[in-house]
Design goal:
eight-stranded antiparallel β-barrel, 12 strands, mainly beta, 7% helix, single chain, Porin, 228 residues
Length: 228
């Protein structure tokens, strides 16, 4: 028992000796998506009407600050505050003899978040690996709609989405890594795995469910950081 106590005490002292605070800034690009935005099944009624729906990732940006507390030489805990532009693009194509041609509709859903991850960070020479939970707080959203009929652009709209369309909080899990080129500069790559629905369950005044919640976000982030 005495040996165990002495060993634990030595580890605590050693951890305190190596403890230090690192902080800096980071910025980069996002490639984001939202699951469940379009149905996989397409309509095909021959010459009468055909319809297909697809979705694609949306390009955005992110930037923020971070601070890491070193617990020991190879392990630290890093907290961040990041602004992140996230969303998805959806595409619907309809060919119909009834409509007299082709109808194309594209919607770009974009939501801005303030993300606060808390990461366990492991150090191996110039390589850093990290993982941990993240809370995202909705900071504003916008819907960009572009509508094209028979090859002619007929309508472009930018509308603020309804306040209750997006959930105010998004919970996710972050995994990623870093590589330091110099003592201060490095690259950062991570993936945010959405765990909660972006679009919450909608109910009317009587509590009847109008639509079930759906849509989990996935965000690939690649950028650079500077450590002071």
């Amino acid at each position: 028992m005495k040996k165990l106590i002495v060993t634990l005490a030595a580890l605590v002292v050693a951890s305190g000796a190596f403890a230090q605070l690192n902080y800096g800034v980071r910025a980069g690009a996002n490639l984001s998506s939202i699951s469940g935005m379009v149905e996989e099944d397409n309509l095909d009624y021959g010459d009468l009407v055909t319809a297909s729906a697809t979705q694609s990732s949306k390009l955005g940006m992110n930037f923020g600050i971070f601070a890491e507390y070193m617990l020991m030489p190879m392990l630290g805990v890093q907290a961040e505050v990041n602004f992140s532009m996230q969303g998805v693009n959806t595409h619907v194509n309809v060919n119909s003899t009834l409509l007299g041609g082709e109808l194309k509709n594209k919607n770009g859903f974009m939501a801005n978040y303030v993300n606060v991850p808390v990461l366990a960070k492991f150090h191996f020479a110039n390589i850093r690996l990290f993982a941990g939970p993240q809370l995202g707080f909705l900071a504003g959203d916008i819907n960009v709609k572009s509508k094209t009929t028979s090859g002619e652009e007929t309508k472009i709209e930018k509308d603020d989405l309804d306040d209750d369309l997006y959930s105010g909080v998004d919970f996710s899990f972050v995994v990623g890594g870093q590589y330091k080129f110099t003592e201060n500069i490095g690259v950062d790559a991570r993936y945010n795995i959405g765990l909660t629905n972006v679009f919450p369950t909608q109910k009317n005044d009587k509590g009847v469910v109008l639509s079930e919640g759906y849509g989990k976000q996935g965000v690939l982030q690649i950028g650079v950081f500077y450590e002071f």
